[in-house]
Predict the structure.
Amino acid sequence: MPLSFAEASATTRPLHLVEADSAAGFLAGRTAAERAWLDAAGFQGALGKLVLLPGEGGAPSGAAFGLGNAADRARGRFHVARALGELPEGDWRLEGDVAAAGAEESALGWLLAQYRFTRYKSAKPSAARLVPPAGVDADLICAIAEGEALTRDLINTPASDMGPAELEAAATELAKGFGAEARVIRGDDLLTEGFPMIHAVGRASDRAPRLIDMRWGTEGPRLTLVGKGVCFDTGGLDIKPALSMGLMKKDMGGAATVLGLARMIMALGLKLRLRILIPAVENAVSGNAFRPQDVLTSRKGLTVEVNNTDAEGRLVLADALAFADEEVPDLIVSMATLTGAARVAVGPDLAPFYCDDEAIAGAILAAGAAVADPVWRMPFWTPYEALIEPTIADLDNAPAGGMAGSITAALFLRRFVTGTSRYVHFDIYGWQPKAEPARPKGGVGQGARAILAALPGIVGA
């Protein structure tokens, strides 16, 4: 569904944002009738408290929404989006302590809160629309919201309707919409064109594996986004238990996120030469599935001992990263729902990332904080390199011991980027386990807005 703002008109009603510390002044400035009404409702600016203000004929003339204090707001984000479910139909504008709430964050949160996944079940859209606050770049906010909506739609779609072919179709449709070019290598052609590990992981499924290669833009720095597109992950022969398999439709969350980010970049017309690489596979079980202790030879020539077929994401990403690195772009970013270890380390809300470049890492951290897209830097801890080096091959895809699982996965991927290309890896979750403001339960993008905001400082886009 389109996510958009309202136009200001004579019927636009005010939503007064009120910090707890300024509630007394706000109340003093209201009419006697409004003060009595707000006093009766116990309104003191508490975070999330919304009170409709009475108008002529019984229709609300506006509303007051509490922002609490700075410490309250630090415990979450997109607070103003909470008002959406309680406001009546109509167009609204923000007034009062807008700066404390964050004008850009509030505007984006409002649009993101309008998102509904309606492929299989109708859902009533929000009836309250927002006039963008003064000084906010409405086109930028809309582009970001539409990119995030694409990511959510792709992740929320079950594997029955989002296999490798359907992911390819989503990517090619996006490419057509923005005049991009897309090339796809499928099935056994992966072997002849030098992508043996993508083929090995995906060959057991009757839905052929593929590599999606999309390009857009003819000038500016080269940015390559690589997204893990495991459309469903059974674990392969090292099959997952049922509880662990339940959310595996989201194992293409990295691909969904880079496609959402690509949509933002293209919609905004950034001066970039953008490339998107997505290894799209289903990790299935059949007689020709790759096996534990198999040794695979990667596109880069490095050999990999398979010590767990459920650590397949790094295998398909490795071939794609090696391919990306051959072109030596200015920046490579990989995004993947890669390890449970990352969730144990930082939980579902933070997007951990790895980067050896201090300037790039700092820019991403600062951007994430500025645009309410929280990220956390993790270390490429070189002393752990020995953990990914087995006795009979160059690399081990699943080191024994269970420690530092996200770090060893990131170190594995770094082996496929030579060091000439600057590299950032995100180990995301891609799922909102319970509804929060602007984030319904289900698929969610992580890190994309932080990367977008950081791009001017990183590559000059």
